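In the previous chapter we treated chains in isolation. Here, by contrast, the input contains two separate entities that must be folded as one system, with a combined length of 654 residues.
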Amino acid sequence: MIKIGIVGYGNLGRGAEAAIRHHADMELVAIFTRRDPKTVINLDKSVQVWHVDKARDFVGEIDVMILCGGSANDLPEQGPYFSRFFNTVDSFDNHSKIPEYYNAVHASAMASRKTSAISIGWDPGLFSMNRLLAESILPQGKSYTFWGKGVSQGHSDAIRRIKGVKKAVQYTIPVQESLKKVRDGEMPDLTTREKHRRECFVVVEEGADKEKISHEIKTMPAYFKDYETKVTFISEEEFMRDHTGMPHGGFVIHSGRTGAAAAHNQVIEFSLQLESNPEFTSSILVAYARAVYRLNREGQIGAKTVFDIPLAYLSSRTPEDLRRELL
Amino acid sequence: MIKIGIVGYGNLGRGAEAAIRHHADMELVAIFTRRDPKTVINLDKSVQVWHVDKARDFVGEIDVMILCGGSANDLPEQGPYFSRFFNTVDSFDNHSKIPEYYNAVHASAMASRKTSAISIGWDPGLFSMNRLLAESILPQGKSYTFWGKGVSQGHSDAIRRIKGVKKAVQYTIPVQESLKKVRDGEMPDLTTREKHRRECFVVVEEGADKEKISHEIKTMPAYFKDYETKVTFISEEEFMRDHTGMPHGGFVIHSGRTGAAAAHNQVIEFSLQLESNPEFTSSILVAYARAVYRLNREGQIGAKTVFDIPLAYLSSRTPEDLRRELL
């Protein structure tokens, strides 16, 4: 049995707890939280909940810590810290800071002879794998990543900061005509506006100026200005009924040409359609916990990304079984 | 520079020669054929063409041999033979014989301390990777593989063996309604007939009995009997104009449920839309030639499949660059 710990019990942590139940070779030993452990209500009452400061006491009892904190504030500190004591998996997704984060976790894991899979999830993660794979196979081609339809927390937060807004959700939606052009192998140059559009559902305080709010959203720099943005005002009941989920997804599409005369178009597409973004991400983290455990037992230490880990390590099946059943 | 040799100069070999030109770190040293080398007209006249019996003389001059022969007759012999002298990549695609083939190539490559990537292509290959990945992430789900729209050589050959048939091509086509059910997360149990249909375009000899031929096709056991099969008779001109390409493709779709109450459906989809099946397959072989070269330099010897090789090995970029640009 692979003994797992979860650090952080928000949406990701809850998803990880549920996901572990589907893996017969894994056992959840404990959940660690910054809150008062008594206030945490988790799925399985037989699983211990501890304050995060107690985690160090579990050295030797936990094989892999799944770090379920956020990339902005939690992981930059937790990643290097926990890899001093445990094998770890995390979903660090601040693309521009990955090199720096990798270096910090790598140094820490090398010193402790642990293995740490960083930036695991779907983007970075499964989408990155498909970008690398497609580019390596068809180097004379072009890759496109589209996100959505899905909820962007950052954009939803930005709307909620506007005066008079009570509740808001923003969906990022890929522009269908552009998707079609890419799939048809046209290799278009696409502007920001041509790739995604933004759809906002907003609940306002009584007496708020809807026109003013709508204008403020649509002209907001960085978030909405460069996009076709649609704002719909709805009642609080509608909001609670239709817009509290966390769907997401997206597409990585690569098209390239092959043959002596480059006459043939080839299209590789990977897509996700997710009803729960955090539950899916945590399912990926759990599969990579198995990989990290095995890599460490083989002495493959340090920080690893999805580019470094052979797929066979993710599966509970034997190599013989994989070749016979899945190849 | 990675020095490459190609064994076998049919559709795959020609595709490999064209693909190598797009990789700045690779050089095609020689092509080996069972035909009289003088009769082989390849793309680049500066590349030597030799009889396959001469290949052994190139030990030390070629880093990786790309084996472009067929799985029925060529590879069972060539795989174990060439891995005695060279690192190799091949597209062995006889699914039921993969374990046996793996063992033969592995024994040979271990003895010579070479590295051999077997069963590289898109199925087995990219499709297998997606089956493993999806099943590992969502073990409580179900995977489906659909092929097409694409030409099946085996089925086309079967039609051509019927008396009175001059030319024929058969397209395997996924059933759209079933694709939709799978994408919607219904996890249906699908019969053979519900997964694919077959479309045949046939040119007959003068005076042939079309009705009889059509009946013979539609009732042919194993090939057509269990499918919805459509037969269209066309002129030889139409055939030459519209049906001499080698398109193919397909879909690997996995849907699974996550969360404490298994309330959320998650769909992972990988698809290919190929205008030239052999050119795409050979493009994959070429990318894996780079991986095999590197693995061997690191002492990772023996037979490998797509499950064993980290994606980073496929790319000419450095690990730092991959993390910064593609992760």
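The mean pLDDT of chain B is 97. Residues 277-297 of chain B form the longest helix (21 residues). Compare these points with the single-chain example from earlier in the chapter.
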